[in-house]
Amino acid sequence: MEDILSRMTSPRQLAEMSIEQLEQLAAEVRQALCDVAASRTAHFASNLGVVELCLALHRVYDFSRDRLIWDTGHQIYPHKLITGRYAEFPSIRTKGGLMGYPNPDESPYDLFMTGHAGCSVSTALGLAMGDTMLGEPDRHSVAVIGDGALPSGIVFEALNNAGFLKRKMLVVLNDNKMSICPRVGSLAEYLDTVRTNSWYRSVKQEMGDLIKGVPMVGESVERMLNNVKDSIKTSIHGGALFEALGVRYFGPVDGHSLPQLVRYLEMIKDAEGPVLLHVFTEKGHGFKPAEADPVFFHTPAPFECDDDFVVSIKKSSSEAYTDVASRTIAKAMRADSRVSVITAAMCQGNKLEKVREEFPDQFFDVGICESHAVAFAAGQAKVGCRPIVDIYSTFLQRSYDQIFQEVSLQNLPVLFMLDRAGLTGPDGPTHHGSYDLGYMRLFPTMTVMAPGDEHDLEEMVPWALSHDGPTAIRYPKAARVRLDFPRQPMALGKAEQACEGRDGLVIACGTLLGEALAAASQLRREGLDVAVINARFVKPLDTGLILPAIEATPWTITLEENTLPTGFGSAVVEAVNDARAAGSLGETGPILRLGLPDRFVEHGDRAELFADLGIDAAGIAAACRRLAGRSPEASHTTAPAASLG
């Protein structure tokens, strides 16, 4: 049988294909997904689950003109394959290759660079209203959102507004009983009633068969029969929830049946007002290991397979900082029953499965509801508990107002564990934790910490849980490292000297400490004696150690895996400026800030990105040589510098 996928130049070709050809194409798309997942870590199970849905949407709609938003965006791979990116697909999630999320720079079929859940309904409604304002109301607007993202508060804000505005748009609820982990909450139970209501399902099937059997005698008969079916379904289950918001509900539909999907999409395409189509899919569909374990196969390590069976998984043997954090949290929970841990649908990502099993009454997965997670933690802290909010740095941004109002303003002892801080590698700019040092250190009562290695992280968690105020600890998506130098006890706002030196100074914030020590070791062999300080605390800053060290050295470099504006280096420069203005600090040499530049950093391997940004050992050493006048040539491109003195 002749290959279809490799010959596709436009998704408009789908309109000319038979159902049999579409099903063949679906199989070819799944094979392409398997091929790429076998070579690198990639989002896998979620993409397998939307293949038929993607093909049906592109068959019924013309998204060169109509609008399509994929919520979260990690299930974008089939869409990329059929929108002209098949030849580039093997490069996905590699430096310079396709992004693993929607990217408008790659294709006009990608409207937003989306990586956070819940915003699709709002943006799709905005697109629809914008088209109406500009005189193009015939353009269709479609949002595809998963059931895991449905409980997000912004989704209901958008549905409420859509029901009020009454503009034509389609929301496809992709219900696979999952987010990354199994979904949680009463809304999940509510959706499950649809799957388990056998009486409704049999009525739906009979009505569907009746509709299919009606001769082509006019649109009014089909509409009448559908109205009867809608009345039955609304009286039984969840259609009433959406109908009450002014959104017409259709479904549920088998999301792996191309004939059903196409028929329903064509039927509701020109319906007036907002419509929600409830689609049942299976995460990992078509690949037996992923069907059996969709959590593991969300982003599996590269694997080899034979037909439908995985032969081997290429696992890393090294532990990550996330493992250290999880282990340290569990130790704290054993020592103190007041300690709880709260996560937002990221139990697996935060390696909290064992914590959940051991402490079911102290573990809370609130779903993709970060704002609620933080306010929920504030309530626990107010009555005397010691809650830990364990959320990726990039996702904690969604709860910024609650960090301010409910936690920091109240000076409550909530510990924020910011996983995936810094560069997350192939996930790219939607997931890089580039901003947390800046957005956390702004709050007056907040203590902000960045461990230099595994030892620091193990010490910081119990210290933070004993501190009477809000604290934040950030750590990267990286293999753990334990550094060998004399350590100082953990105390509020206290840094430590990692190595001595008279020719220059590097103040390292976070786990780039290892890179700084490697650079200092290399420079020492070259005759350049550079001191290194492990900052540990971003707020409060250890001015008692750092400022005299800066004053005593010819030049200083600050180092961080955070964006330079408002980051650690900025905090050091501010402290130097304030001390000089107060007359407590004399003249200083130049201060060079190394970190993430004031732009969105692309995706790629962490080591590749570090080298490009000049924050690996070689880049740090090159910057030291330049400041010391040892080498006029820059061996790496570094981030912008801020100089004083």
Overview of the molecule:
It is built from 24 helices and 19 strands. The chain starts with 18 loop residues before the first helix and ends in an 18-residue tail after the last helix. The chain is α/β, with parallel strands linked by helices and 645 residues long. Helix 20 links the parallel strand 15 and strand 16. The strands form four sheets. It has a seven-stranded mixed β-sheet with strand order 9-8-10-11-13-12-17, sandwiched between helices. Helix content is 39%, strand content 15%. It folds into three domains: 245 residues, 3-Layer(aba) Sandwich (Rossmann fold); 154 residues, Thiamin diphosphate (ThDP)-binding fold, Pyr/PP domains (Rossmann fold); 132 residues, Rossmann fold (3-Layer(aba) Sandwich), CATH 3.40.50.
- Count structural domains: 3
What is the chains' assembly state?
A: single chain
Describe the global form.
globular
Architecture per CATH nomenclature, i.e. the level-2 architecture of the largest domain: 3-Layer(aba) Sandwich
CATH homologous superfamily annotation of the largest domain:
Thiamin diphosphate (ThDP)-binding fold, Pyr/PP domains
CA-based gyration radius? 27 Å
The strand order across the widest sheet is 9-8-10-11-13-12-17
Q: With helices defined by DSSP (H or I, 4 residues minimum), what is the helix count?
A: 24
CATH class category label of the largest domain: Alpha Beta
Strand tally, please? 19
- CATH fold description of the largest domain: Rossmann fold
Strand content: 15-25%
Low-pLDDT stretches are 198-204, 214-219, 231-236, 632-645
Average pLDDT confidence is 88
Cα separation of the termini: 73 Å
